[in-house]
Amino acid sequence: MTVTNVDNLDRTSALAKHDVGGRTPAPIRFLKRIPVLIVIGVLLIIEIYPLFWMFINSLKSNTDFLNNPSWALPEVWEWGNYVSAWLTGNLATTITNSLIATVPSLALIVILGVAGGFALEVMVFKGRGGILLLILAGIMIPVQMILLPLFTIFFNLNITGSLLPLIIIYTGHGLPLTIFMMATYFRAIPREVFEAATIDGSTMLRSFWYIGFPMVRNAVITVGLVQFFLIWNDLLIAITFASNRSLNTIQAGLLNFSGEYGATDYGPLFAAICITTGGILILYLFLNQQIMKGLTAGSVKG
Q1: Residue 265 resides in a domain
Q2: Which conformational region is residue 202 in: left (phi greater than 0), alpha (psi within -120 to 50 degrees), or beta?
């Protein structure tokens, strides 16, 4: 064997040792990733299949839905179900009513909740611990227990023929949890930040708007997102205080697809659910991106 061949063998051996010792070969790395890929695939199926199932059932006739498996594709694609859903479910009115009830409620919950959390955690005054416990007691009161007293009060005030009772109830029901969560977020901010602002001559209101609120804006978006879905998906309060068809919210409007004798028009019903779910899904994806931006932009620089 020549010297050149010996050098080539030594070089090949050295490269093989470097590859083995330096990093894992590609086939082994791929085998290690298989369990992760399987888990991701299962999660995607769990998340996507219900949406696909709902969509294919929104394009079926009642006969097709009742006689064939629910997971089967439609025999005839009934795209007119979406037109029927919009008209029968009165979606234009119900979506408008939901927005009228949700937007003011959410604005009041966020503004009052963030201000309440700031006051109970940053401001120092006697009895703030007892006030926080009293507010937290509101979380433990089931809304079913107070429906009848509230209905009596609103009826005597002659405001039951509007969406105002929904706004009042949603705001009152969402404030305890919001105040508690915001107080927790304000607790994580160093107290020295507000003390330094006070020494520099900042008022408490200015410290709230220009220091406290920007530092917890990611938390505000998160809390607002949670409260939005709680209000938007409510059915019990909506059918109790807005039972009139002209005042139906989106969830109450879905009950219009049930006939007088319990018969349900499944195709338009699923179509209406697809319309409302699609809009909420897009909104959720948008707000999810906003949350991530808030987490990045709201970080404290050292």
Answers
A1: no
A2: beta
Q: What is the pLDDT of residues 119-134, one digit of tens each?
A: 888 887 787 778 888 8
- Measured at the alpha carbon of residue 119, what is the angle toward residues 117 and 121, in degrees to the nearest 5? 65
Alpha helices in 58-146 (DSSP H): 62-67, 80-88, 91-121, 128-136
> Residue 144 contacts by C-beta under 8 Å, 6 or more apart in sequence?
236
Q: Does residue 263 sit within a domain?
A: no
> For the chain, how long is the longest CA-to-CA vector?
108
Model pTM score:
0.77
Query: Average of pLDDT values for 67-83?
Result: 84
Place of tokens 């416990």: 133
Based on the fold, state whether residues 94 and 155 are members of the same structural domain: yes
- Quote the CA–CA distance of 157 and 84 in Å, as a whole number: 38
Structural domain boundaries, residue 201: 89-257
Give the Cα separation of 112 and 167 in Å (integer): 14
pLDDT digits (tens, 9 = 90+) for 18-29: 444 456 677 777
